[in-house]
Amino acid sequence: xxxxxxxxxxxxxxxxxxxxxxxxxxxFLIVSILAGLLLRLPAEKIxxxxxxGMGDTLGSLVSIICLGAMLGKLVAESGAAQKISSVLMxxxxxxxxxxxxxxxxxxxxxxxxxxxxFVLMVPLIFSVVYQYKLPAVYIGLPMLAAxxxxxxxxxxxxxxxxLVTQFGASMGITLLYGLFIAIPAIxxxxxxxxxxxxxxxxxxxxxxxxxxxxxxxLPGTANSFITSLLPVFLLTATTLLSYLFRSDQSLKGTxxxxxxxxxxxxxxxxxxxxxxxxxxxxxxxSVMAIYGDAVKDVGMILLIIAGSGALKQVLTDSGxxxxxxxxxxxxxxxxxxxxxxxAGIIRICVGSATVAGLTTAGIIAPLLxxxxxxxNLMVLSVGAGSxxxxxxxxxxxxxxxxxxxxSIKDTLKTWSVxxxxxxxxxxxxxxxxxxxxx
Length: 438
What we know:
InterPro entries: Glcn_transporter (IPR003474). Belongs to the GntP permease family. By secondary structure, the chain is an all-alpha fold. The protein has one domain (2-437). The chain has 21 helices and no strands. It has helices at 2-18, 24-38, 43-59, 62-78, 80-92, 97-109, 114-132, 136-153, 158-167, 171-196, 221-244, 249-258, 261-277, 284-297, 299-318, 320-329, 335-350, 353-369, 375-385, 395-404, 408-437. Helix 17 runs parallel beside helix 19. The longest helix is centred in the C-terminal third of the chain and has 30 residues, at 408-437. It is globular, with a radius of gyration of 22 Å. The two termini are 35 Å apart.
């Protein structure tokens, strides 16, 4: 009966967001309170569970997500993103423009949130389309596939970062595994798939013709690349150092401190303020204004993550999480595949990759305690499933349709299929890694 109540609550959550058009944070709070009542959690403990869940979930995430937003905003505002793309375009030449754009999307997608990355990169895609008279969909899909993969798979993006916390995974190891899985997923969904849909005609709207920053005002090449990728470099380096010196007790405390994602993001943001901010002629006041605007951009994302934590805590305190874990553990399906399917179903119903990933985490997390599944791979499996088949209830679907001026039919044939390829290829990569690392 308890499991049935949970399923009904998930259905209600989906209906509130899709049919009721309710904000996801409010929907999570309503469903969390209702779940507590239906699961017979003592009335006086329901709100304390909600508050504890929100606090525990956000505690380790606020700094990482906000600092990540600050770095991404400065990378965009300073022109570093434009500099990276122009360097890669010149290096690859006309023949390999797709690959140049794909790599640009991947590099820029790591510090930038998806919506910001999309709006920032689409003018670049259109500038190539206008200049070389190439099909817009053919040129655009590789870059957008790269943005989508970084959004779903890689920290410090909100959903994978929150999943790392909920599953007790390692931010650095998840990033390393994610890079291994992301590259083939991007190649298959980008350059390879775009050849199949090259014939689809798209006339980008004149409204979106690019107005790039003056080249003389762009930061240097090394500055742009190093600053944008600094969190990746630092996370990778500190993870490797922690592994190499794991038996050295005298260094254990220091290594633990320097490998903390929050500290790494803080160092990256401070360095960016000097290199892309003051070093590019901006005042510290203007840099801090950019950082302040960035935090406003992620406010609702943080609330949605908090809401998912509230639901998870109610399920945990009621004891139903253990029942679900026990029931799922007896299913003849690998936990990684099961988690991917759950995330995929919720994504198709709700449209939001973030909501799909976080809702799945609340259900599947207890299963990890009774299985030998690698938590880092579980993060990636849920992340891949949360990207499955974007369609008319997803804002990304409409962004692509309107910017590329496509029909709904052609958007389904291009964007929706691309997202599905990313999800399926991501799962394949997770299962291959699982077979290797056991």
